[in-house]
Each structure stands twice: as structure tokens, then as C-alpha cells.
Design goal:
Elements lengths: L11 H17 L4 H4 L4 E5 L11 E5 L4 E10 L5 E12 L5 E3 L12 E2 L5 E4 L3 E10 L7 E11 L2 E11 L7 E9 L6 E8 L8 E8 L5 E8 L9 E7 L7 E11 L2 E12 L4 H25 L36
Parallel strand pairs: 2-10
Antiparallel strand pairs: 1-3, 3-8, 4-5, 4-7, 4-9, 6-8, 9-10, 11-12, 12-15, 13-14, 13-16, 16-17
Length: 339
């Protein structure tokens, strides 16, 4: 039930409760948009119109060429910004992502990028600036793709824009697949492998997988599918392929074939034992197979060479000792009987 608040009912206890409720209500209110989500600033390739927007830079030329382009910086906030610009080398992370190296590790195409006197840009609120930069290709630069990036930094935040530099000359697309292995078991089984770009151009690889089971006799072919990575020159990445239908117990032979536009197919093979329970179960399976192999070997030795039975045929009459049918002394009879 609600009661009207009058000077008589506003006791110190009631006033304290009202103050506590007001504080809770103030804490529950969202912050103002300007304080919670300040717009900040952006960096992107400069374009003449919105329809001409580019996601990255692409520059091509021969060795010793000086290439030019422009970077657009926009301050969409309400305070002044001071942005510093630099070039950086780009590389693949172990899982295939595109990343840039820190300034102290930039010795490749990132070092070819220069902003000159515009390496530090001050942006007033709600303004946009277009900053030119050059890419000076060394005379000794090898042909092919040289991945780099332009990095803009301000207030602890960095934004990178990709720069692809193609130096003229012979190009080579070369791909290898290595280090194939099987990890996990059951529905969590995966096939791990490593792709290496041994050419001088970036590659977009595809992978086909073929698995053959020794005991089950079944095959598990998978058509080639494009991988969601771009492998840069000299890049090495390790990926995994899920195998939810892997057998619980079997010996499998794997064949992986990697392809990329312009590159010859690369194939790698591997064999693996799949067994529940980890290494102990695999060891037990190995001992079981060794025992079966030993039994087969004993039977072969008892039979002798193919097509010749070296024991006594069942139901054959006994020959007198020393008779014409007795075996030679140098070739004892393998009957298995104790001597």
C-alpha cells in the first residue's frame, strides 16, 4: 500500500531509505552515449568516392621503383587526436591469420614505406586528412609479393591497413604439405598438417583428404575444398581437419593433397593407429597383432615352401626305416614330435 509523503511522515529512517533508492536508480541508468562509446578515429585507403573504397593497398612496379599512394585519416570524435604513422612487415601467424610485426622487427617491405614529414598528424575534432606516402623498392629486391602494412597509432590504440607490394620479375607458386598426424580419438579426432609456401607469391590453398582403413576396409575420401587462409611467401601454418567419423579401432592410411592456383599439387602421407584409451590400448593392439603374426609364421614354417608338404600326409602308409621314401639325413623331417 502506498502512503502519501508529508512532513510528518518524513522521518530520518524514511529519508535514509529514499536516499538509498535514489542512489540505486542512478547506478542503473546507462551512461551518456558520448562517455560510453566515444567515436574515435579511423584509417583507410584514400578513395575519390564511396563507390571506390578499397579494403587495402596494392602497388606494383620493378625493382628500384618509387610507388605512391594515400592514406585517409578521420577524427570522428569531439577532441583533438595526434596519430603517428609507420610501415610494418606482415606475416602469417601459426594458424594462418594476417599479422604485422613490431617496429623493431621491420626489415622487409614495411621498411620501404615512408610518410616523410607527415609521420605525425594532428587531427582537430570532426576532420579528415589525406596523407601521402611512398614505397621505395630497393634495386636488389627479389621479384614476387612482399606483404606489408601501414600502422596508425594514437593513445595506445593501433589500426593497420594492409599493403601488398608486387615486384616485377619471374614468379613461382610452390606449396608443400608436411607433418601429417592424427590427434585425439572418437568424435574429437582431428588430422593435423602443416602448409608451407616455398614460392614468392601469396597462395590461397585448397585441401583434399583420403583416408583408408586397414581392418574395416572402408575409405573416407573428401573432395578438395578451399581453406579460409592466405599463405604469404615463406609462410608456414599448422591447421587441423576435423574427423568426426574416425574409426574407434583401426589402422588408417592418410593421404593429403594440397593445391593452389599456379602451383603443382603437393601430397603427404601418414599412417596411424586409432584405438580407445590412448597409448596403453595402442600398445595392446600392437602386441595382439604381433601374436597373430607369430602364429602365422609358425604355420608357414610347419608347411615349408609353397606347394610342398614336409610332414607326413594324413592317411599315408608308413614307410620302413631306411626305405626309398625316407627323407635325406641332411633334411630332417619337421613333424613336431619330440625326439
Amino acid at each position: 500500500m502506498l502512503h502519501a509523503l508529508t512532513p510528518r511522515t518524513l522521518t530520518p529512517r524514511v529519508l535514509g531509505r529514499l536516499a538509498a533508492l535514489l542512489l540505486l536508480a542512478a547506478a542503473a541508468l546507462p551512461a551518456s552515449p558520448a562517455a560510453a562509446d566515444e567515436p574515435g578515429w579511423t584509417a583507410e585507403p584514400a578513395s575519390g568516392a564511396a563507390a571506390d573504397r578499397r579494403p587495402s593497398f596494392y602497388l606494383a612496379g620493378p625493382a628500384a621503383a618509387v610507388l605512391e599512394d594515400r592514406l585517409a585519416l578521420a577524427n570522428t570524435g569531439d577532441r583533438e587526436r595526434t596519430v603517428t604513422l609507420r610501415g610494418a612487415d606482415a606475416h602469417n601467424t601459426p594458424d594462418g591469420a594476417f599479422a604485422v610485426r613490431p617496429a623493431r622487427e621491420t626489415r622487409g617491405a614495411g621498411a620501404w614505406i615512408s610518410f616523410g614529414a607527415a609521420a605525425t598528424v594532428t587531427l582537430p575534432p570532426h576532420t579528415r586528412a589525406v596523407v601521402p606516402f611512398t614505397v621505395t623498392v630497393p634495386p636488389s629486391a627479389p621479384p614476387g609479393d612482399h606483404p606489408a602494412a601501414v600502422v596508425a597509432a594514437e593513445g595506445g590504440r593501433e589500426a593497420g591497413v594492409r599493403v601488398d607490394v608486387r615486384v616485377g620479375g619471374p614468379v613461382l607458386a610452390a606449396l608443400t604439405v608436411e607433418d601429417v598426424s592424427v590427434r585425439g580419438r572418437g568424435a574429437a579426432t582431428t588430422i593435423a598438417y602443416t602448409l608451407v609456401n616455398r614460392g614468392n607469391v601469396a597462395l590461397t590453398p585448397a585441401l583434399a583428404l583420403h583416408a583408408e582403413r586397414a581392418l574395416g576396409g572402408a575409405r573416407d575420401p573428401r573432395r578438395a575444398r578451399a581453406l579460409p587462409v592466405e599463405l604469404l611467401p615463406g609462410g608456414r601454418i599448422t591447421l587441423t581437419e576435423p574427423w568426426p567419423g574416425a574409426p574407434a579401432f583401426d589402422r588408417v592410411s592418410l593421404r593429403l593433397t594440397a593445391t593452389a592456383p599456379g602451383a603443382a599439387p603437393a601430397t603427404a602421407t601418414a599412417t596411424a593407429w586409432l584405438a580407445p584409451g590412448g597409448s596403453a590400448a595402442r600398445a595392446g593392439a600392437g602386441l595382439l597383432l604381433l601374436g597373430a603374426a607369430a602364429l602365422v609364421l609358425v604355420r608357414v614354417l610347419r608347411r615349408g615352401p609353397p606347394g610342398r608338404w614336409r610332414g607326413k600326409p594324413r592317411g599315408a602308409p608308413h614307410e620302413p626305416a631306411g626305405g626309398p621314401s625316407a627323407p635325406a639325413a641332411s633334411e630332417p623331417e619337421l613333424t613336431g614330435a619330440p625326439r
